[in-house]
Amino acid sequence: MGKFKANDLREKSIAQLGQELVEQKKQLLEFRAQQAAKNLRGYKINEYRKNIASILTVISEKNRDEAIKKYQGKKYKPLDLRYKKTRALRRQLSPKQKALKTLRQQKKEIHFGKRIYAIKA
Q1: How many CB atoms lie within 10 A of CB 63?
Q2: Which residues lie closer than 8 Å to 52 by C-beta, 6 or more apart?
Q3: Which pLDDT value is given to residue 59?
Q4: Torsions phi, psi for 29 (to 5 deg)
Q5: Does this entry carry the keyword Ribonucleoprotein (predicted)?
Q6: In 3-state terms, what secondary structure has residue 80?
């Protein structure tokens, strides 16, 4: 068995990936037993370990995508699905909050609009 491509794995369902994972783990176990009996080179084990890692990565990607779809448009999201940004950026005012003005400021802007000057040449 050769290396698995992540793109090929993404086309499969989570159930199929689970079956593939079980098969790969069984193969790895057999190769470990053969290695203990000194009948196997180490590169085969590395190949199967990488295949297992690829399968697990694709499974976690699919689970994350499902969770993102589930919480799309909801008021609250799990912490790991929220935007990370930086602590300071997360605590910043929203654009709507930044644009709010006091009643006094609104009146000043209405009564004393922006002055426009033209320079005579």
Answers
A1: 11
A2: 21, 24, 25, 28
A3: 97
A4: -60, -45
A5: yes
A6: helix
Please give the model's pTM, rounded to 2 decimal places: 0.69
Contact 35, 42 (CB under 8 A): yes
Count Cα atoms within 13 angstroms, Cβ side, for 94. 2
CA distance 2 to 98: 56
Name residues whose C-beta falls within 8 Å of residue 44's C-beta, 6 or more positions apart in sequence: 31
DSSP state of 38: T
Q: How many residues does the chain have?
A: 121
- The percentage of the chain sitting over the pLDDT mark of 70, rounded to a whole number, equals 99
The distance from CA 47 to its chain's CA centroid, rounded to whole angstroms, is 26
Using DSSP's 3-state secondary structure scheme, residue 13 falls into: coil
| DSSP H helix total and E strand total for the chain | 6, 0
Report residue 54 as tokens.
């690829």
| Structure-block tokens of residue 11 | 């086309």
